[in-house]
Amino acid sequence: MDFKKHSTALIISSLLTPFISVTAVAETLPAGTSLAKEQHLVRANDAEAATLDPAKAEGLPEMHILRDLFEGLVIQDRDGNITPGVAESWETEDNQTFVFHLRKDAKWSNGDPVTADDFVYAIRRAVDPKLASPNVWYLKLTQISNIADVAEGKKPVEELGVSAVDKHTVKFELDSKVPYFVAMTGHTSMMPVHKTTLENSDKPWSDPKQFVGNGAFVLDEWVVNERIELKKNPNYWDSSDTNLTQVTYIPFENQNSSINRYAVGEVDITSDVPTHMAQQLKTKYQDAFTAVPLLCTYYYAFNTTRAPFDDARVRKAVSYSMMRDVITNGVTQVGNLPAYTFAHEYTAGFDATQPEYSTWTQKERDQKAKELLKEAGYDASNPLDFKLLYNTSESNKSIAVAIASMLKGNLGAQVELENQEWKSYLVSRRQGDFDVMRASWCGDYNEASTFLSLLRSGSSGNFARYNNDKYDAAMDSALAATNEQDRQGFYDQAEQLLAEDMPIAPIYYYMQARLVRPSVGGFAKNNVEGRIYSKDLYIKE
């Protein structure tokens, strides 16, 4: 299947129409499916979850779990189509005012009804500067009226452009047209939270006795650094179509360990496969090995605020000498695609102009890199010397080691590798305590802005601390554009500025490789955003 055409058709046709009204279509078991007596699924996770607060979650380890514990206005089906979540239908006439109609049978895990007020409360809470959510930058992209002023404490949260028309109707008013707004509401930061629990509990996110969610599952046990246990939520509106009764998430900083646990039958779905084992595993587990396009880009962020990477010449030199084809073919070996732009190749409706250096031979790139370094004052007597930070995993380590070797061989650079576990890495990233940092970004919705907005000067996701007025202006113009062609043109301008300034070095577009036990049914192989909802999965006999 041509995934690019597929995703484009699905997303653009469903989200860019001036009027939208959708009703639920339930996922059903394939005819003839026999379910196993025990419906307990064990999923490997990339790391220990830093939080289960939807407003504060900022990484995939958290989001995987939150999609089971909470449900937003919309969700996705196995093919990545936007489908009803708590909202059973929605409409807009101008892509600036959106009205969502909530299903009347949606309940919290304690039996309380899920209401429009729950969404208003949650979104106000997430934007409120008192919470200091790391997702405020994302919420600003929604263009909900007054959101920037509220987030900066200039206006009260009550003036945010979200309101409860009645118990089952939520209305959003935006400052400008955002044709993909519906898809944006699927983000974890826009999930509802239970007001009474939050205001009357001291550990509402980690204590199963206090936890209240509205998803298909509810928190049952959390043993830190060992496992998170979820159990089926009988009060979930679609509980009758949810087959799993228990889901266990096991955190793995070391992917070798997850493969070992899979081999002895203790894990049903791995979150990844170690790069050095990919070919071996593909042969050994032919019926379990799966690799699908994933809307994520692997990249290195340069700290543009401190030497030596405050100099664009140095950033370019390092980027040019990173041999992307060697990394994808020789190191990762799962079919990842070399990247020279930030937005993923499978981003719906967007084909970025490839930067000039992407057409050069590696010899030409290395030569240009040496010239740039010399201009910047680096040579054999004064070699480039810096630290490269990555979060602990075999894959990240293998790539970092390879890149350090390339830079030493091509540029004579001295690269010190520094690895940190996930929670420490998040702190270093947030504080800018690094020279060069491994990072990856996965689309929160399938549109170019989900990548490119990250590097705006005011974005908390702008780990490179990139600041370019021209770039911000291009992104502002894209948001304001009234037709699709103009919008894509401004996105292309933004990509060209990134190639010129090089605040980040894109390395590859993901192909997500996993081992999925053949007894697991309902696994999403065509969802380019990698959203795997446990409610859609089941164990076959």
Summarize the structure.
The protein is built from 17 helices and 18 strands. It is an alpha+beta fold and 541 residues long. The chain has 2 domains: 3-249 and 516-539, Alpha-Beta Complex (Dipeptide-binding Protein, domain 1), CATH 3.90.76; 292-512, Dipeptide-binding Protein, domain 3, CATH 3.10.105.10.
CATH-defined topology of the largest domain: Dipeptide-binding Protein, domain 1
CATH superfamily of the largest domain: Dipeptide-binding Protein, Domain 1
Poorly predicted runs of 5 or more residues: 1-18
Q: What is the helix tally?
A: 17
* CATH level-1 class of the largest domain: Alpha Beta
Question: What is the number of independent domains?
Answer: 2
Going across the biggest sheet, name each strand in turn. Answer: 12-16-11-15-13-14
Average pLDDT value?
92
State the separation between the terminal residues, measured CA to CA.
29 Å
CATH architecture of the largest domain, by name, is Alpha-Beta Complex
Radius of gyration: 23 Å
Q: What is the strand tally?
A: 18
Global outline: globular
Described by strand count, sense and barrel closure, the largest sheet is: 6 strands, mixed
Helix content: 25-40%
Class per helix and strand makeup = alpha+beta
**Percentage of residues in strands:** 15-25%
